[in-house]
Design goal:
CATH superfamily of the largest domain: DD-peptidase/beta-lactamase superfamily
Structural class: alpha+beta
Distance between the termini: 76 Å
Strand order of the largest sheet: 2-1-15-14-13-12-11-10
CATH architecture of the largest domain: 3-Layer(aba) Sandwich
Radius of gyration: 26 Å
Number of domains: 2
Number of helices: 19
Strand content: 5-15%
Helix content: 40-55%
């Protein structure tokens, strides 16, 4: 606070040369004071972040690694839980995790590099680059529409056979296209937004065709090696990787190994692995505008399509506004989540404030850690993790049945809604777990409870239809599949099952 007066006094007392020297000393003192202030603030934030993540871990809501940066400096990095539960190998900041759809931002970077090199056009179509693509409206889908999930391509990972059957087999990239390229489009390209892994599979095939090399080789040559990302790459099942985490699912009776998936099937849509530290290096490289010209970066890191008010999608990135609080303007956040068998991931940034929050989890648990940590960084108190309502009522099902569990669900929802996670996936996961355990009647009741809570959810009715089918009541299965299709005309699972049941 005394700096202006001190500077004025120095200017009158010393010669110009000495005054400049002293001003430099004063500038160093001021910078040092700012650094001390930031350091203390960062230490306080790190302590609060540690308590927050530990609370998530203690509740079984997080098992992985976290890195947080503020004002461009890493203030927190730590691992929680086991990278390998059987050998009790702990997670650490350099543990390698599958990152699922965070892969898409790397695929988009390769596309923009090829555009910059004149080998692709953003308005070029699938038909331009894959001549053998089946006749129909799909051939006219553009690179831009593939990048922004506005293509209308049916999402191949929603195929009923994908996870139980198709995902377990190895495929060449072009051999993945027949899973979806002849299916009807979900909507006219460019008219809507709907997340589609199929779009990024198609982009991967186009990248290989136009660059003349395999995707994983291009990824290494064009991005990973130039940036020194030594702990990031395309994961092949057979490759031995040091410090690789195993994937688990959080069952209601303890963790279980995640189902096998051949990593050729997620391809350019989700087959990469990385660490929180390498993803931060990637974010820093983007901030430094490496790999692309300024003009290309303006395209690569810009919102392109309004999903809904306050949420936009670009080229492999989601965009939203974040409240800074205290009467300050909101800031733009950019990030992406990922999920693949046994793993979930998040790469989240607020570039204006030098904030990065990266978390990687090897128990397939999505969460809102990035939002909670951001609250701390902006000086607010996070609400903390909500207890799983599914895990809370599961023991009641075992002791007293689903009807008693439903009563407890309603009691807690009316009396302590802020303390429990009542989101739609909670009961959906519980219902499928019960189905797997052979408790079909209980599963039906839990799925019905979820439909009651989320009557506009196509997925809820689809799940309830599956439970009724398992219970042997075809008429109720058909009724629920029809309702699911009414709510989402693009639900191919419901459409195919209705056709199989002779109801369409």
């Amino acid at each position: 606070m005394k700096t202006p007066a001190l500077t004025g006094l120095i200017g009158k007392t010393f010669s110009d040369r000495n005054a400049c020297r002293v001003r430099r000393v004063v500038a160093v003192i001021i910078s040092f004071s700012v650094w001390i202030s930031f350091s203390a603030s960062a230490q306080t934030a790190a302590t609060k972040i540690d308590a927050l993540v530990k609370a998530y871990a203690d509740q079984g809501r997080f098992n992985g690694s976290v890195l947080v940066a503020q004002q461009g400096k890493v203030i927190y990095r730590k691992g929680f839980g086991w990278a390998n539960a059987e050998w009790q190998t702990p997670n650490a900041p350099d543990t390698k995790f599958r990152i699922g759809s965070v892969t898409k931002q790397f695929t988009a970077m390769l596309i923009l590099q090829l555009v910059e090199a004149g080998k692709l056009r953003l308005d070029g179509s699938i038909g331009d680059y894959i001549p053998e693509y089946p006749p129909g409206p799909g051939r006219a889908i553009t690179i831009h529409q593939l990048l922004t999930h506005t293509s209308g391509l049916y999402n191949y990972t929603d195929l009923p056979r994908f996870f139980p059957e198709l995902s377990r087999d190895p495929y060449k990239p072009a051999d993945l296209l027949p899973m979806f390229d002849s299916l009807p489009l979900d909507f006219q390209p460019g008219s809507r937004w709907a997340y589609s892994n199929s779009g990024y599979i198609t982009l991967g095939v186009i990248i290989e065709r136009m660059a003349g090399k395999p995707y994983d080789v291009l990824l290494k040559e064009r991005i990973l090696d130039p940036l020194g990302l030594k702990d990031t790459g395309y994961e092949w099942n057979a490759t031995v990787l040091s410090k690789r985490a195993d994937g688990y699912n959080p069952g209601f009776d303890g963790y279980q190994h995640a189902n096998y998936i051949d990593m050729s099937t997620p391809f350019a849509a989700g087959a990469m692995y990385s660490t929180v530290e390498d993803l931060y290096r990637w974010d820093q490289a983007l901030a430094a505008r490496k790999l692309l010209t300024s003009a290309s970066y303006a395209k690569y890191l810009s919102p392109q399509f309004d999903i809904r008010p306050g949420l936009k999608y670009g080229y492999g990135w989601l965009y939203a506004k974040v409240d800074r609080g205290a009467g300050k303007d909101s800031a733009q956040a950019v990030g992406h989540n990922g999920g693949i068998n046994g793993f979930s991931a998040c790469n989240f940034m607020i570039p204006e404030d030098g904030i990065a929050v990266i978390w990687l989890d090897n128990t397939a648990q999505g969460n809102d850690l990035q939002d909670q940590i951001t609250e701390i960084l902006y000086g607010r108190t996070p609400k903390g993790p909500a207890a799983s309502i599914a895990k809370t009522i599961y023991p009641i099902i075992l002791r007293q049945g689903a009807e008693a569990a439903g009563k407890r669900y309603h009691e807690l929802k009316s009396q302590a809604a802020d303390r429990y996670d009542f989101s739609e996936p909670e009961l959906n996961l519980l219902g499928y777990y019960l189905l797997k355990q052979g408790r079909t009647s209980d599963a039906v009741q839990i799925f019905a409870l979820n439909v009651e809570a989320y009557p506009s959810s196509s997925n809820g009715y689809d799940s309830l239809g599956e439970a009724w089918l398992a219970a042997g009541d075809t008429s109720k299965a058909v009724a629920n599949y029809k309702r699911s299709l009414e709510l989402d005309a693009g639900n191919q699972n419901a459409a195919q099952l209705l056709q199989r049941l002779g109801a369409r």
